Amino acid sequence: MIQVQRILVPTDFTVSAESALTYGKEFARAFGASLHVLHIVEDPFLYHPSSEISVPPLDYRRQMEKEAREQLEKRLTAAERAELHAELVVGVGYPFLEIIRYAKSQSMDLIIMGTHGRGPVAHMLMGSVAERVVRKAPCPVLTVRHPEHEFVMP
Question: What distance in Å separates the CA atoms of residue 131 and residue 92, rounded to the nearest whole number?
Answer without folding.
Answer: 20
